[in-house]
């Protein structure tokens, strides 16, 4: 049995946790070493609860104090969600099981399907992709059947990409969001990409709608439309977050269980540079990235996690040591994850701001532009389109000028050659910059694909470090 606390002595952590009437000062002290326990304490002070809830938003609303605070100030929680939804989604999305990730992707893509069907009501390929992704996640579809749907939706994406700027803006985003639902390799690696594409579809559709309402107003409509379009995007992102929380709560039984009194808590283990392998593996399901970053993470486990979380791996204290010992193993990982659409590349690009994504795409397109100009030395339209795209990132070109540049790139496209893929990379930077790297790598000769993709990867890392 626990001995009695001496008069005047500070109470132990366990005593504070067990006492529903613990003082505010005691709970503040508890928060320093065990923030989750402080958040869950029924007597948690309001100011402290709100601060902790912002960093632990999945369970916060369901804690004893949280249910009371949200009843008193529901609008404050909504404001917090609008402010943090993007960060929360990125922080907690990897905690979902692979089936739950695919189901969330399907749900978010399904939300924007009406935007696509308003443009092309007879085309049901995106809807079938969403339905197939959901069926696969539930074990009702085989992988070979999934691959067939994937091939169909990829063809649809190519058709839209070669169509008008309007369809690329809305339909292209919806198709991209839907396609990840049937990605036969790993939908989880495209989770944030898919959700972001759904948000882009909402934002572009909102821009189009508000511009139509203010048509004829010169430059004003563009700026007047931007504010409500951004608000619509945030509203959709909050919905995505609430849906993610639903899946996280559904899978809570499969997550790491809460520690018993006397056992070490997850936060304590993850901060301990001498945590045991057994302790770290017990937290693997819920905290894979934090386990990866622990300085005592076993080498075999580190390499296992590094393939799924490359950016966290590169930031970890073990990265210099382990890659110095086995540089060829890291190189093998890069090669494996950068082929074709490259899940590492997609993850990295999804973390860039819209401006940096376009600038990165411009660099990818410029590298292969000589391939186009070699076949068409007098055609300067792709180069002109790139220059407009660069000016657009500086605020020196309008959306209308960008759309005109996109049309120039389309008109310059000649199917059946490397020049066509180079022009496609240019088209991308004037419409959907995410595709610029994809087409840029396809434009080079097959023997140079891996070299070009490696350049794209290392250049992307420079952007992510904030030094473009």
Low-confidence runs of at least 5 consecutive residues = 1-7, 216-225, 253-262
According to DSSP, the number of beta strands is 0
Q: Please bin the fraction of helical residues.
A: over 70%
- Number of individual domains: 3
What name does CATH use for the topology of the largest domain? YP_001051499.1 fold like
Describe the main β-sheet briefly: none
Ends distance? 60 Å
What can be said about this structure in brief?
The chain is mainly α and 468 residues long.
Explain what you see.
Mean pLDDT is 83; it is low at 1-7, 216-225 and 253-262. The chain starts with 12 loop residues before the first helix and ends with a helix. It is mainly alpha-helical and 468 residues long. The chain has three domains: 13-84, no CATH class; 96-253, Up-down Bundle (YP_001051499.1 fold like), CATH 1.20.1590; 346-464, no CATH class. Helix 21 (354-375) packs parallel to helix 25 (436-443) and helix 22 runs parallel beside helix 24 (418-429). It is built from 26 helices and no strands.
Search tags:
single chain, 468 residues, mainly alpha, YP_001051499.1 fold like, globular, disordered N terminus
Q: Can you lay out the helices and strands and say which pair or pack?
A:
Blueprint: H1 13-18, H2 24-33, H3 35-40, H4 46-55, H5 64-72, H6 74-92, H7 98-119, H8 125-137, H9 143-161, H10 165-180, H11 191-213, H12 220-250, H13 266-271, H14 277-282, H15 288-293, H16 299-306, H17 310-315, H18 319-325, H19 327-338, H20 343-350, H21 354-375, H22 381-393, H23 399-412, H24 418-429, H25 436-443, H26 449-464
